[in-house]
Amino acid sequence: MIPLSGRALVPAALAVLLVGCGGGTTEQSAGETPARSAATAPAPAQPSAKSPRPLERSVPVGLRIPAIGVDTPVMRLGLASDGTVEVPPLTDDDRAGWYRHSPTPGQVGPSVFLGHVTVGTHGDGVFRHLARLHRGERIEARLENGTVAEFTVTAVRTVAKADFPTDDVYGDVDRPELRLITCGGPLAGEEYRDNVIAFAELSR
After folding, report:
1. Backbone angles phi, psi at 39, to 5 degrees
2. Tens of pLDDT along the chain (204 residues)?
3. Answer CATH for 54-202 from 2.60.40.10, 1.10.10.10, 2.40.260.10, 3.60.15.10
4. d(CA 13, CA 85)
5. Other CB atoms within 10 A of residue 168 CB
6. Distance of CA 111 to CAs 91, 124, 148, 198, Å?
7. Whole-number Å distance between alpha carbons of 141 and 147
8. pTM of the predicted structure, to 2 decimals
9. Residue 120, class by beta-carbon neighbours within 10 Å (0-12 exposed, 13-18 middle, 19+ buried)?
10. Residues 114, 182: contact at Cβ < 8 Å?
11. Between vectors from CA 183 to CA 167 and to CA 202, what angle results, nearest 5°?
12. Which residue of 80, 81, 150, 151 has the fewest CB atoms within a 10 Å radius of its CB?
């Protein structure tokens, strides 16, 4: 089993983050706001002295991001037979997935969600507009115990898949955080060239 926190959260998961974001039969929407580059993206914010108290463990069942029109059920993702992290299936009712070997939202550590940018012939994926998120916008994780964990976006980065920032995404943190991951950038054959990563911290 992969540990729940720390840099070991996933060496194997990189293979999935480098591929498996939905593949591209749908081009990016005309007029879409360009994603921030890794070189210009702000670093995730430092912990505040008034950070909210971490929550008890409870599995996420829904994810809502009002600024980009996301309101999705959440499925659990584990490991595939080759040791890489599973990704949600390509279906017309595309959903986000939570990597179940990461902390649940509100626990200390990075809680990791994956979603497609496109779902082949089905069209747009659930994280299609993840790159449009801005610092300060809200993400809500609905938990199995009825709690809603509210997070605030601290940074959105677009990085080349070859330069995926493993430590920034999976490294130890001393507070509850989220990582939302999808693909982005131009298509290179059947795959997108980049990854889009949204970072968020628990706000209440």
Report:
1. -70, -30
2. 222 333 334 444 443 443 455 444 433 332 233 333 333 334 444 545 577 999 999 999 999 999 999 999 999 999 888 877 788 887 777 899 999 999 999 999 999 999 998 776 777 889 999 999 999 999 999 999 999 999 999 999 999 998 999 899 988 899 999 999 999 988 888 788 999 999 999 998
3. 2.40.260.10
4. 5
5. 18
6. 24, 24, 14, 12
7. 8
8. 0.78
9. middle
10. yes
11. 55
12. 81
Name the burial class of residue 66, with classes exposed (0-12), middle (13-18) and buried (19+) by CB atoms within 10 angstroms of its CB.
Answer: exposed
Length of the chain: 204
Whose CA is closest to 119, among 59, 72, 158? Answer: 72
C-alpha–C-alpha distance, residues 140 and 21, integer Å: 22
Rounded CA separation 170/7 (Å): 5
Rounded Cα distance between 18 and 183, Å, is 8
Quote the CA–CA distance of 110 and 54 in Å, as a whole number: 12
